[in-house]
Specification:
- By secondary structure, the chain is mostly helical.
- The chain has one domain: Growth Hormone, Chain: A (Up-down Bundle).
- The protein has 16 helices and no strands.
- Helix 13 runs antiparallel to helix 14.
- It starts with a helix and ends in a 10-residue tail after the last helix.
């Protein structure tokens, strides 16, 4: 069966446990989806796989000052490179994991990624050179990319349509609790020791995922979708991803939206902790408050998406995101780049709320037409959007000048460009037919 035919074939969504095995288009009995783990555990495990990415960034943020002092970094913006190096590792490696998982299956590739992540954590734990620390962060990112890619591919293996969007939203809700607790956890760890202990926590997370996934998650890749390794086949899958208008348009929009988020994460320590609002040890409280709003939005999205539809929620979300970005710019100009803390937190939280109503649905709509090449598509879209967001976040974050104006402009401008790509993907029509 050709890739376009496979993409159009109806796949078993596995949304109801105990369904009889479906018939494939070739008339053969398809292997029923595994019934383990049950729905709540499935969501929790997927969320933790996705959360490893955020955990490895956010719990390190309170240590930026200590790391800057330890390595005697003259440029205070240089410590942000730890975030973007990690993201570059994730973005580059994602191109690899998806195609290989379509050949070998999801489980062995995830175990390999966790091992690489653990190796990077060990290097970071023992280095005394900042450049080596940056290299270790790249290695960590290369390993963490396996979880990022395979979490989405596993969801697509078992679910589709609005059910897939619901799973992604619920996973995002759990995933977004990580930024709530991770900076606080990093601060607690710093009370008992140096920033090196934070990398010990990362090792512990890798071990937990290895054991939990190994014991509870069976292989989810359908045997009929397991493909022999072929560069030509991978190329055809990538071409299918690139030439599917909806997938390509929403992928670019995701990268742009995530670019604003990465700029916020990279500069959050300087904005809240050290340079502008000087919250010091209260920094995790402000960071957690914004992340908590995103978690609420993800829960609302999961509750509404099956009734309202992905397009209405996400298109309304991105329009509101741009309007909020414009308000952020206006408040920055009105207060010489330093609006009152409560006002700035309220605006950022509003933008992140709308982000959480938008990006999970964008991701589902990008993946929906690509079920037959889910691993490669998830890999390519994930790698592309992560690289794009890390580069955009780097430039916006490095523009930090002691005010919140560069960050505010990033939200407004990147959101507006993302809307342009959504219009292209939908042929100029917003709030159209559902899903």
């Amino acid at each position: 069966m050709s890739l376009p035919q496979r993409a159009a074939a109806t796949r078993d969504p596995a949304s109801g446990a105990g369904q009889a095995a479906a018939k494939s288009s070739a008339g053969k009995t398809r292997t029923p989806q595994p019934l383990r783990p049950a729905f709540p555990e499935f969501v929790a495990l997927i969320a933790l796989l996705m959360g490893m990415t955020a955990f490895s960034i956010d719990n390190l943020l309170p240590a930026f000052g200590a790391i800057r002092a330890d390595f005697a970094l003259a440029d205070p913006n240089r410590v942000q490179v730890m975030v973007y190096a990690y993201l570059l590792g994730i973005g580059a490696a994602q191109f690899f994991y998806g195609p290989v998982s379509d050949v070998l299956g999801r489980r062995p590739i995830l175990f390999a990624g966790l091992a690489i992540y653990a190796a990077g954590s060990l290097i970071a734990l023992f280095t005394t050179d900042f450049n080596v620390l940056i290299a270790a962060r790249v290695i960590q990112g290369v390993g963490a990319a396996a979880g990022r890619v395979l979490a989405i591919a596993i969801v697509r293996d078992r679910f589709e349509g609005r059910e897939m969007a619901r799973i992604m939203s619920l996973s995002m809700m759990v995933f977004l609790t990580v930024p709530i607790v991770a900076p606080a956890l990093g601060s607690v760890i710093l009370v008992f020791g140096s920033w090196h202990l934070i990398f010990v926590a990362m090792l512990a997370l890798a071990l937990l995922l290895w054991v939990w996934f190994g014991l509870r998650m069976p292989e989810t890749l359908h045997p009929e979708y397991r493909i022999p390794f072929s560069l030509r086949g991978i190329g055809r899958a990538v071409v299918l991803t690139l030439t599917t208008r909806r997938s390509a348009g929403y992928a670019v929009a995701i990268g742009l939206m995530m670019g604003s988020l990465m700029a916020y994460v990279g500069s959050a320590s300087q904005v809240f902790q050290t340079d502008i609002y000087k919250l010091g040890h209260l920094f995790p409280v402000a960071f957690a408050a914004v992340a908590g709003i995103m978690a609420v939005a993800a829960f609302i999205n999961a509750s509404l998406v099956r009734r309202v539809g992905m397009r209405r929620l996400s298109h309304g979300g991105i329009c509101g995101f741009i309007a909020t970005g414009a308000l952020m710019v206006g408040s920055s100009l009105a207060f010489d780049g330093k609006p009152p803390l409560v006002l700035f937190c309220a605006l950022v939280a509003s933008a992140q709320f709308l982000f959480a109503l938008t990006v999970p649905n964008f991701n589902s709509m990008a993946m929906e037409p690509l079920g037959a090449v889910a691993g490669t598509a998830s890999s390519f879209i994930g790698g592309f959007t992560t690289l794009m967001s890390s580069v955009l976040g780097f430039f916006v974050g490095r523009a930090f000048d002691g005010t919140v104006l560069p960050l505010s402009l990033g939200y407004m401008v990147l959101g507006a460009i993302a809307l342009g790509w959504v219009l292209w993907a939908e042929k100029g029509r917003l709030f159209g037919h559902n899903p």
